Amino acid sequence: MIRKIFLGLFLLVFPATLMHAQSVVAIQGGKVLTVTRGVIEKGTVLIEDGKITAVGGDVQVPAGARVVDARGKVVMPGMIDAGTRLGLVEIPEEQTTVDSTEYTEPVQPDLRVMDALNPRSELLRAARAEGITHALSTPAEGNLIAGQCAFIRLDGETVEQLVVKSPAALLINLGEASKQTYVKKDKPPTTRMGEIALVRQAFLKARHYRAEHEAFAKKQAEGKTEKGSKREEDWKDATPPARDLKMETLLDALEGKIPVVVRAQRVSDIETALRLAEEFGFKLVLARATAAWRLAEKLGAKKIPVIVGPIQEEPSRMESLDTRLDNAAILHRAGVSIAIQSDSDTDVRELPFAVEYAIAHGLPDDAALAAVTINPARFFGLDERLGSVEVGKQANLVILDGMPFYVKTHVVAAFINGKPVDLATHQTELYDFYKKKYGIE
Amino acid sequence: MTRASSLRLQILLAVICCFMVSRAVLAADESRPIAIRGATILTMTNGTIENGTVILRDGKIENVGKDIAVPADAEVIDARGKFVTPGLVDPHSHIGVYSVPEVTAHDDGNEMTDPVTAQVRSEDAINTDDPEIARGVSGGVTTVQILPGSGNNVGGWATIVKLNGAQTVEEMKFPNAPPSMKWAWGENQKSVYRAKDKAPTTLMGEAAIVRQKLYDARNYTAKWKAWEEGDKKEAPPERDLQLESLAQVLDGKVRVNAHSYQVNHFEALFRISDEFGFQIASLHHALDAYMIAPEIARRKIGVVTFADLWGYKVEAWDAIPQNAYILWKQGVTVAFHTDNPVIGQRYYIAQAAFAVHYGLPDDVALQAVTINPARILGIDRWVGSIEPGKHADVVIWDGYPIELRSRAEKVFIDGQLVYTLDDGFLPWKGRPVGQFTR
Question: Which residues face A394 on adjacent strands?
Fold first, then answer.
């Protein structure tokens, strides 16, 4: 009875405190890899309202906070895969489930990944179970100016919840795949010359589009200032130049509002990307970049960010003969800021193993960690919200039972925007069923 | 004798001398044993030997153990802190029939003109200059089975080879390897022939076509038998390479490697093998094999699978990374494969590593890339473990091989050093085309 009264009193007096404390999560005692501020051996991370509110070795845990015991565990930011087709593809060989390949014309900056994302995709669950909490989702290769990439979090019931930023970048695919698509259709581009002519023409057209709109706006403004004049009459009902979605996206790129991710593999294609960026002044992010190691000094000097991967690329194309496992390491040594991508859909969950290969071939551990956390966040202008364990950032965290990327390390918990995420996948559900069926431990 | 001819003679003699000397040096080197000392030896069949020694002589493993005598004339390799495994055996690769780069000219793996092409042989297509050979060795792979592709229900004859860098297939071929054939069941054959508007376009069609062909082969055998047992006054029946190949399968002389994914594929294959009374050696890919693991164990069929290749098509949608684990628990002999070029030949060891990530014990995972595939191919008398008498196919790793950070540091095939981390694939050293082992 007394206890009940006490409880009632408590609830009466402290409801606000209680509510507050309950919404606080404290991940306590883990080895925290902050990425930007070093390693805290026995650290605590506080999460409140989806954000990180404290990080350190001697953080006061508020009474009533939900404590997650992370002793003996490693806490790090959720990994970011800088190039995937997540949400766009379900079963790659079933065309009805593939929305990444609008191969109907080579210049399609108006396409938005956001309009095709499927938040119910199993592939999102599979990836986040291995600690990947965010990804850049891009159209597939095979189209020249392929569309607008979306930066997504791998948790959400709706597209709106999934999308962190759209457009996050414009994608241009140079090289073999883009021309192959149109060789089959007997349409341009069927050569690299054709590809670049189309890209240049598109950007020039966008400049002209801007000039037309600016000229119209100027004339209209001038007309308005001449009260009662015939010119005002002329301009009041004048139709502005038509809006062109393709041109508007290209203008965003030309004006530096979004970066341009250019996928290029062999040396000549990487050079072409640099030439285009110089001619039109867009913010270039190189991707795939198989032969980038051959141009490492130049890329370092020009401070071009590079998304490398797939790390275990084979010399399976004429344009990938320069593949080597220490591409990432060589670029890093030359001062290039790198991110790592899986460039995949169903295999995004193997990103940590790819990182391990890059480390095996010379990429320092801290650079490898940055390549799947803070660097990709920076490339897409999201480093104030994501990519490290810092106060004020979104609480995207994973807890591991060992050091990241090691083959015997497993994800034991993950948080996206402070919310614990379910680590079950289609595969774990099948395994659980058959394990039980056959009495296997 | 003129001066000129005398000079010629001198040159000739000098050349002969040089030749003899170099032969002598070479011969001495060949017979000089190699002792790998101080390593952790993962034997695969007899546990782990810490700080052990392996002696290689005349292309064979002469001895292995903790405290064994090192022959006085042995070339000693200090392998303290390193790990030694047998060379890896990949039971399913298309190396050389789908060479890299994958340009049209290299497309030699699938004779997709008829769903039954039992008569074709991968050995007639293997490109011995495929860079994947060097890359495979850089990942510790020494033996591979090269299969035709999976476009047809009966794809043709396989070839088992050593990745020794030889210029001819004849020199690469694994001596005395049992005959082996590629079969395939499921989506690929349907999609290949649907595109041609030919049968099969369903799983029903696949079974009907193969069953009819096997009856044709049975009739073919009967016709020959009748002729052999008769007075032989008539001309012998015409030889038919396709039916002859299938007749050998019915005769139980061929190891059938059956590409298949789902339970309905496995069952169709079981029904056919029961109807005609031959054994299927192994199910390949077999991503859903875990669902009927006890039945596969009962039939003593091996499984060659991916550690984790999920979701790329409908028949791969239920793949789980514990497939190998469940099969092993149920007593099935399990091996991994690369299906190169699906997975790069050099990343074969990663299959074992991925499986460990998902719960397979380390030793089982390593057996699944060494002794188990050797057993499935019927070559375990010669390769797949570190045992005296076996081929000296040995890998020295700079770390524990299950860890992806470890790299093959030295690779021996038949006792010859063919790869070092510093110098790459030695048989191709100095060739103008790159070795692709970086």
Answer: A51
Q: How many CB atoms lie within 10 A of CB B59?
A: 14
Give, as one character, the DSSP assignment of residue B97: T
pLDDT at B186 over 80: yes
Q: Does B356 touch chain A (CB under 8 A)?
A: yes
Out of B325, B347, B434, closest to residue A312 by CB: B347
Shortest CA distance to B163 belongs to which of B412, B337, B402, B422?
A: B412
CA separation (Å) from B239 to A22, B121, B220, B242?
Answer: 82, 17, 9, 9
Which residues have CB under 8 Å from A3's CB, separation 6+?
Answer: none
The edge-to-edge listing of strands for the beta sheet with B159-162 is: B88-93, B141-146, B159-162
- Residues listed for chain A: 441
Cα–Cα dist A82/A259, whole Å: 13
CA distance B164 to B173: 10
H or E element: which one contains A241? none
Query: Who's near A149: CB < 8 A, 6+ residues apart?
Result: A113, A136, A137, A138, A139, A166, A167, A168, A169, A170, A171, A261
Could you tell me the two tokens for A123? 């592939």
Which stretch of DSSP H or E encloses residue B24?
A: helix B3-31
Identify the pLDDT of residue A232.
67
Among A290, A265, A86, smallest CA distance to A178 is for A265
Q: What is the pLDDT of residues A166-221, one digit of tens each?
A: 999 999 999 999 999 999 999 999 999 999 999 999 999 999 999 999 999 988 88
How far CA A229 is from CA of A112, A153, A225, A237, B435, in Å, comes to 44, 55, 9, 14, 78
pTM (2 decimals)? 0.92
A180: number of Cβ within 10 Å: 14
Task: Tell me: pLDDT of B437 over 90.
Answer: no
Chain A nearest CA to B241, separation (Å): 34
Kindly state the tokens that stand for A285.
């992010």
Encode chain A (441 residues) as per-residue pLDDT tens digits: 444 444 444 444 444 444 454 589 999 999 999 999 999 999 999 999 999 999 999 999 999 999 999 999 999 999 999 999 999 999 999 999 999 999 999 999 999 999 999 999 999 999 999 999 999 999 999 999 999 999 999 999 999 999 999 999 999 999 999 999 999 999 999 999 999 999 999 999 999 999 999 999 988 887 766 666 666 666 767 788 999 999 999 999 999 999 999 999 999 999 999 999 999 999 999 999 999 999 999 999 999 999 999 999 999 999 999 999 999 999 999 999 999 999 999 999 999 999 999 999 999 999 999 999 999 999 999 999 999 999 999 999 999 999 999 999 999 999 999 999 999 999 999 999 999 999 998
Best residue of A266, A314, A350 to probe chain B, by most B CBs closer than 10 Å: A314
Could you give the dihedral angle defined by the CA atoms of residues A228, A229, A231 and A234, in that order, rounded to the nearest 10 degrees?
A: 50
Name all contacts of A191-200 with Cβ < 8 Å and 24+ positions apart: A192/A268, A192/A269, A192/A272, A195/A106, A195/A144, A196/A272, A196/A276, A198/A106, A198/A107, A198/A144, A198/A145, A199/A107, A199/A144, A199/A145, A199/A172, A199/A276, A200/A276, A200/A279
Tell me the residues of chain B between 270 and 309 that have a Cβ less than 8 Å away from chain A: 290-291, 293-294, 308
Q: Which of B308, B312, B438 sits opposite A325 (nearest CB)?
A: B438
Q: For B65, phi and psi rounded to 5 degrees?
A: 170, -175
> Taking a C-beta distance cutoff of 8 angstroms, is the pair B406, B397 a contact?
yes
Partner A, chain B 185-204, Cβ-Cβ below 8 Å? 187
Among candidates A123, A315, A438 on the partner chain, residue whose Cβ is nearest the Cβ of B330: A438
Question: CA–CA separation, A205 vs A207, rounded Å?
Answer: 5
Q: What is the pLDDT of residue B24?
A: 40
Residue B4 pLDDT level (bands cut at 50, 70, 90): very low
